[in-house]
Design goal:
single chain; about 270 residues; alpha/beta; D-Maltodextrin-Binding Protein, domain 2; 2 domains; five-stranded mixed β-sheet; 11 helices; 11 strands; globular; binds the ligand C=C(O[C@@H]1C=C(C(=O)O)C=C[C@H]1O)C(=O)O
């Protein structure tokens, strides 16, 4: 019996185009959907073989390989990563961070500390808590609940994709497919590329199917998947990724000397 390859993907709308019919493209895939932070922990504890994990956790592990040219990124506003704040940036002293997030939580710290020169207190924000009942100045929300949130008690809603690109001029990469060290994907990397190509040809249908369950407008979901998110990991995205790494490393949110290795199937390497 062929081994199952355990694939963990983010449970949010942002990921749907990357996993559309994924299991049809490879018979050995065992697909699970989770929060990004949970996927990072599962990959770290060998409960997954490949996971769509927050990039900051790719840096922190420094032993994974990246599946080429697939990412969740933005080139300006992202619409689903928002720092809701009662204060303007300069006056934020305490922030609650979405426990589903690792990259955006680090990005919030990078912006606060590097761009605005303040080091606020950080507390976790649980999945089912009410943001309006918090005593913090700001709360970071990501994913589907960030897109639905209005939070009239917060005067400011900072889009962190927009903040990053306004500041650096670069795209931002939130998540990549990371392959655990020593794992041979047995062609699952090709299936991931096929699912992405297929999913991107189906964004209209995906938006229409997913919108009602999310309580969102289908046209809005389509524009989010088509014009807001970017799923390639090209040279500009890689420049954004490296720049984020250097800033996170300076703040000791990531270790020194991280290598950005791509995944190459073992049999191809061996047959050279
Ligand atoms: C754009 C997003 O990208 C994500 C944000 C992540 C993070 O903050 O750790 C991780 C994976 C992605 O789901 C989002 O969730 O809205």
């Amino acid at each position: 019996m062929p081994t199952r390859i355990r694939v963990g993907a983010v449970e949010y709308l942002n990921t749907k185009p990357l996993i559309e019919r994924l299991t049809d493209f490879h018979p050995q895939i065992d697909l699970r959907l989770e929060l990004p932070s949970v996927l990072a922990d599962q990959l770290a504890s060998d409960d997954l073989d490949v996971g769509l994990i927050p990039v900051i956790e790719f840096f922190r592990a420094n032993r994974y390989r990246m599946v080429p040219n697939i990412a969740i990124g933005s080139r300006g506003p992202v619409l689903s990563v928002t720092l809701f704040s009662r204060q303007p940036w300069e006056r934020i002293r305490k922030v609650a961070m979405d426990v589903g997030s690792r990259t955006s939580a680090a990005l919030t710290q990078v912006l606060l500390r590097k761009r605005y020169g303040i080091t606020p207190e950080i507390v976790p924000f649980p999945m089912h808590a009410d943001p309006e009942s918090l005593d913090t100045d700001a709360v970071l929300l990501i994913g589907d609940r960030a897109m639905r949130a209005c939070l009239p008690g917060y005067a400011y809603a900072y889009d962190l994709g927009q903040e990053w690109t306004d500041w650096t001029g670069l795209p931002f990469v939130f998540a990549v497919w990371a392959v655990r060290d020593g794992v041979d994907l047995e062609g699952v990397d090709l299936a991931l590329a096929e699912a992405k190509a297929y999913g991107l040809s189906q964004v209209g249908a995906i938006a229409q199917r997913e919108a009602p369950g999310l309580g969102l407008d289908a046209g809005f979901c389509r524009r989010y998947l088509t014009n807001i998110l970017h799923f390639d990991l090209g040279p500009r995205e890689q420049a954004g990724l490296h720049h984020f790494y250097t800033l996170a490393r300076d703040l000791e949110l990531a270790p020194q000397g991280v290598t950005f290795e791509s995944y190459h199937p073992t049999h191809l390497v061996e047959s050279r």
